[in-house]
Each structure stands twice: as structure tokens, then as C-alpha cells.
Amino acid sequence: MALDGIVTRSIVHELQSCVGARIGKIYQPSTHDLIFNLRGSGNSKLLLSANPTYPRIHFTERSSINPSEAPMFCMLMRKHCEGGTIESITQVGMERIIHMIVRTRDELGDVSAKKIIIELMGRHSNIILTELNTGTIIDGIHHVTPSISSYRIVMPGFAYTEPPQQHKLNPLEIGQEEFLSLISKAEQDVQEVHTEAVGELEEELKADGSGGPAPSEDPQGWIVHAFSGVSPLIAGEIVQRYKSSGALIATLGFSKENQVQLWEAFSSIMEQVRENQFSPVAGANAKGKLIFSAIPLTLLEDDVKGYSSISHCMEDYYGDKAERDTVKQRVSDLIRFLGNERSKNVKKLANLQEDLDEAQEADRYRIWGELLFGSLHTVSKGDKTATLVNYYDEDQSDIVIPLDPLLNPSDNAQRYFKKYNKYKNSLLVIDEQLIKTHEEIAYMESLLQQLAHASLNDIEEIRDELVGQGYLRDRNKKGKKKKKATRPTLQVFTSSEGIDIYVGKNNLQNEYVTNKLASSNDTWLHTKDIPGSHVVIRSETFGDATLEEAAQLAAYFSQAKQSSSVPVDCTLIRHVRKPSGSKPGFVIYDHQKTLFVTPDEDRIKSLPSSLKS
């Protein structure tokens, strides 16, 4: 896990700028996350996340949509912490646990102190609010009941219990002599592991950080086992520096020189951490996996990126990973439904094409019927075929007409006239069905593309659209009706020239930004013949840079995101119109010119953006 005790220490060091700041508004945009708006020492936003996959705490500049009704835990945090002053932010040893002391006034005006405990421990992550004086839990963002854990309970009214201790040593408090002693102890432990006293020995050694693998055989594993807050990533970095010093890992114990060299590699990192000399970096390791660290790593290969702060590093590293994971869970049923609907329409399209091919033979049946009627005297009941001269052919060649031997010649002719009339009439119906089926397929593909870029709020708008179009049943029909937003929330980018560029992420947003928000002389962009977002430049005057960036956005938020030289049409809003009775988000346009761009994700991310409703 990238977020270890060292990263936590760098976060806490950076968050010291929050001490003395006042907590403004508190939001809970998702199940696991809190946002604190801080005032004083420079206004900023602080993200606290107990996400089981991406737990973290750092300053954030990302905009998020908050639910119309705040969750209960958010309401409780507002009650106890809004308006309060942050008195201290500390780390528990080198663990991934942070304590934030907040002093505020209660309903009676009395001074009250609360402790917010942020536990960044993978699937066990939590944000817990407690009374500072008594340690009583007021509530936690995730409840832990006795049925979940017999060790500790995280429920209102219970005393707070720390997570189980790992009995590891603090790497910042270790000197060279003690480090070398630990190596000797660990080597001895391995040699005596098969003795009768092994149980007592392990208990004794665990208390002083040894009892793990032998440093000579697995120095990385031993470091992780012995010292708190040191992840396999940092332990691997220590071993990498140890090896690069020219040392060879012994097979049977360390020489004194080996042990000193390992200490020097260990100390070179811990001295940086002890002095809070952090230089966050991110990049790919030898296996191509993207990793980040609060300190420079020799393990990183090419394209190493440095950051001015650990918050910028984590913001860039995590990006929208947490939201994307949540979105994937929420949209799985919609993607399955839309995929099935698309498959059904593709199959229907194939059947309609077969019917069309057959219906286009209608004239043949008319000719057969007329030739039979003109030659009834030459055909007898019971004949299976009739060979007649085709007067409609320039060469007057013979034609073989299949017959039903159970019918007389006149009935056979009537049968072909009926087929002719049937297929002639069906051609109009088939043409209508073909158009409708092509529209259905395009509509499903556009929704699938929108789900690929959807935020949590966008998902609900897409689901509501499918309900409104009659594809899905309203899940809230029997319950409390949701209050519909009068205007959707739109993502607005600011071009390098300071011009607002509006991007619709679903059909509700596309229709609003194109048909209601934009003025007739605003510029509209969309990928040519490719499902994608409606993009509008809200200005009559702008330069080539803004047009290029808007085209980038149109290509990026489309089905051609991973393609190169994507065609993007642009025209004025007054040349864009919605046909009567067409599907949501569907428009036709003219007077367009086509640009060709290759989506650049880094360039898109560099554009300032915000959410507006």
C-alpha cells in the first residue's frame, strides 16, 4: 500500500498549517468522504476519506457535488465541529492514525473539545468523532458492531479503543547500535526457531521488533516486520540503496560491514523523515505499476514526476479513482441493461434487413402473377412449375415459375399477387423500423459512452432519463418522490484565454446546455458521427487556443477518447436544432467546420474547472 506511516507523517507535517484555522462548512459528498472548508491561514478544502480502497487525508482543489440532504454523520459533524478551531493535528507514533483536536462551543455556549480520529487502514479505515476528555465515541462514519469485531466496537456511546497494536519499533527512534543489535537478535531468533523455547522466545522478540525473517535472507521482509510505518515500498527502497552501495546479501548471516551498510541505507531515509524533508514523487516502478512516495525513490524508472506538496501528489495520484470505482459499482446494472437493449436491437436490425431483402423481390411476384394469368390455359392443377415466356424481359427469355400443385393455376396467380401486395406494403413499415432501430442503437451507444464519463450525480440523471423514456421502472414510485432539480449541475472548464467552456455529461445536461443555456452566437462542438458530449463556448469572441481546447474537451468526453485525429464539428448554436419527437440529446446541425484533434488527458486536467448549476 502506498499510503504508509511515512506518507502519513508528511501529511501531518503539511497539515500543521491548519492549526488555528476555523472549520467552516462540512460536507459529505459520498459514503466514505468528508470535506472541511477551512478559514484562516489561507482558505482551503481538506478531504478526509475512509474509503476502504483509497483512504487518505489531504488538501483538495477538486469540486464535488453534495447530496441535497446531508447524511446523518455529516449533520452530526456539523453540529459538533462547524465553527470550531483546530488546536492540533498529530500522528500516533508512525502509524496510519491521525488525531485532530477541535475546540468549539456547544449549544449553551460552553467551550467543548472534540477529537477526530482518522484511521487510514485499508478496509478498516474510519473517521471517528470522540469526546476529548472522556474518549467516548460520539459516532463514526463506519460503524463496527460486536458481530463484526470482538476486539473493539465503533458505535455511539462506547469508549474508543485503538486498533490492535502490532508491537513494532518506531524507526525514527532507532540508533545505529540498537539497529545492529536487532539484526543480531533476529539472526539468532532464526537459528533457535526450532528449539523447545520457541514460544517464549517469539513473545520476547516480538516486543522488541524482531521475530521475523532473517535480515541476511530477506532484509526487506525483516524491515517491514520490525518497524512501524515502513511499507514494503520503502523497505524495498532501503534494500535498493543497500545493494547500490556495493554490498552483497550474505546467505549465512551478515558481516559487520554488511550490517553497517544496511544501517546507512536505512538511516539515509529515516533522517529525511525525522527532519520532515519531504519531496513527494510519483512514477512507474520496474513492473510498470504507478506508485507515489513522500521521499525520492531510486526504484522509480522513467517519467518521474515531482510535486511541491504531498497533497498535490496524492490529488494527482488518486485523481478520481475512488469516484470511478464507486461509479462502476453503481452503473453495472445500467451497463448490463443498455448492453442487452443494444444487442436486441442489433439482432432486430439483422432480421429487418432480411425482410427488406425479401420485400425488394415484390416486383418478381407481380410479374409471376401476371404471366400466370396470361397463360392459364397452358398450366394445369398439379403442376409444380410453369415455364413461360417472360414478356417483361427484353430478350423474351423463358422463366420458370414455382407452383403449388394443390392449387389451380388461377389460385397460384392470386397467391403471387397477395405476396406482392404484402411486401409492397411492408416496405414502408420496414423502412420506418430500420430508422427507429438505428436510432435505438445510437441512443444506447450514447448512453453507454455517457456512463463511461459519469459522476455519481450524472448516473442518477441518466437513470431518471431511462425511467422517463419508459425503459426502466421508477424505483421511487411507491416511496417519497424525489425533488427534481430545476437545472442540472454542469462541469465548466476555463480556457487558457479565460473563456468558460460548458460540457454536458449526459442527455439532460446536453439538452440544457445546448437548448436553454447557450446563446445563438455561442459556439457548439461535438464529435462527428461519434457519441459524445455537447460542448459550448460561452462567448462570441475567442481565440484559436480556446477553440482548440474546446475541441479537445469534445474529443476527450466522447467514445473516441483513446483515438487520434478525432473529427470534431463546430458551428454556432443558431445552426443547431432538435427534431420534433427525437430522442433526448439528439440534434441536427449545419454550417459546421471540422477540426481534427488528438485527446490529451494531461492538457484536459490542466484546465481549471468547476461545477455550476
Automatic annotation (TrEMBL):
Keywords: Protein biosynthesis, RNA-binding, rRNA-binding, tRNA-binding. GO terms for biological process: rescue of stalled ribosome. Key component of the ribosome quality control system (RQC), a ribosome-associated complex that mediates the extraction of incompletely synthesized nascent chains from stalled ribosomes and their subsequent degradation. RqcH recruits Ala-charged tRNA, and with RqcP directs the elongation of stalled nascent chains on 50S ribosomal subunits, leading to non-templated C-terminal alanine extensions (Ala tail). The Ala tail promotes nascent chain degradation. May add between 1 and at least 8 Ala residues. Binds to stalled 50S ribosomal subunits. It comes from Paenibacillus wynnii. This is Rqc2 homolog RqcH. GO terms for molecular function: ribosomal large subunit binding; rRNA binding; tRNA binding. The gene is rqcH. It comes from the Bacteria. The keyword tRNA-binding applies. InterPro entries: NFACT_RNA-bd, RQC_Subunit_NEMF, RqcH_bacterial. Residues 492-580 form the NFACT RNA-binding domain. The keyword Transport does not apply. GO terms for cellular component: RQC complex. Belongs to the NEMF family.
